[in-house]
Amino acid sequence: MDTRLAVFIVHGIGVQKTGFSRDMQENLQSNFKKALQHMGQGDREGQDDALIFREGLWADITQEGEDTLKNRMFNDPDTDVDWVKTRKFFVDYLGDAISYFKGKTSDIYSQYSAIQSRIGGLIQNLSKETNPDQNTLLTVVSHSLGTVVLSDYLYDKRETLAPKHQLVFSNFFTLGSPIALYANRFYNHQSKTNPFSNFQPQKVKDPNGLWINLFDEDDIVGYPIRPINSYCKKVVAADLNVSVGSFLSGGTPASHTGYWEDEEVGKIIAEKLAIDWLRVNGWAKKEKTVARTKKYKERYEMPSS
Q1: Region at 176 (left for phi over 0; alpha for psi -120 to 50; beta for the rest)
Q2: What is the pLDDT of residues 97-128, one digit of tens each?
Q3: 25, 190, 238, 278: which could form a disulfide with 284 (CB 3.0–4.6 Å)?
Q4: Phi/psi of residue 215, each to 5°?
Q5: Is pLDDT at 176 greater than 80 in this prediction?
Q6: Domains of the chain and any CATH numbers
């Protein structure tokens, strides 16, 4: 039986429906087959079922409180405010970021543990679909605040993920990520030379894996991660500037939701998955995998270090 790859797709702020995930799955499956053809491996059996997908929705956890707040603030007979629709938008979107506060487990002000518990359950379900007799490579594709949620989860579970779930954290693709902004939680006022040195997100476990951060220069939520400190330069293989969005949203901040269907984004992720699939099934020797990975990095102009 061929070894399959696990792909966990995690949404960001406000997403409670599955449409974006289906778009990404179709994007990746299509480009996965194209990548195999490009490598001269298009006739490999099992490619239709090579990728096991699981979707990560969590925004419904924060939505109930946000809906209650909107009802109380905007239906109060003693309160009159303008721009109600815009304010509701802010409550939903900014509210998710505020609700996801990393406090203590018993902290009554934090929904952090509830969101992390949801993610843990989904990953456990994903592990049940993999071969119980061997570890399976796990690729995480996350968007927006979902990149922060997964970065925190993978850090918190860094010592237990592989033995508990038979999943090895292999690749991390962050799309439109505000992780760089969360580095400010670790800012050290006492340090004049390296004030962000304490910001050390979890690196991928697989020595052949990569963390690739993709952002559109017009997406005001997405930022590069490597410049934060020397540690980030080591664990993040590349900050790739991609152009996403439709004819109307491209070139504007609305491009933030354009990653899921983007062909270039799909190619970047799927090509790495194709390299991994050929490697773990023994269809590519070490030298061939190294050569393919080198060409992959060169094609997308990733830094050498």
Answers
A1: left
A2: 777 777 776 677 778 888 899 999 999 888 88
A3: 278
A4: -150, 150
A5: yes
A6: 5-55+116-299 (3.40.50.1820)
Query: Residue 165 pLDDT more than 70?
Result: no
232 vs 12, 86, 217, 235, CA distance in Å? 22, 36, 20, 5
Whether 47 contacts 33, CB under 8 Å = yes
- Sign, Cα dihedral of 224, 271, 300, 21: negative
pLDDT, position 105: 66
236: how many CB neighbours lie within 10 A of its CB? 24
Report the pLDDT value the prediction gives residue 7, as an integer from 0 to 100: 96
d(CA 42, CA 36): 5
Amino acid at 55: E
What average pLDDT does the structure give for the chain?
Answer: 87
The Cα-based distances of 10 to 21, 123, 145, 304 in angstroms read 8, 11, 9, 28
User: With contact defined as beta carbons under 8 Å apart, do 217 and 241 qualify?
Assistant: yes
Cα separation, 244 vs 225, in Å, equals 19
CA max distance for the chain: 72
Contact 167, 161 (CB under 8 A): yes
CA 46 – CA 287 distance, rounded (Å): 23
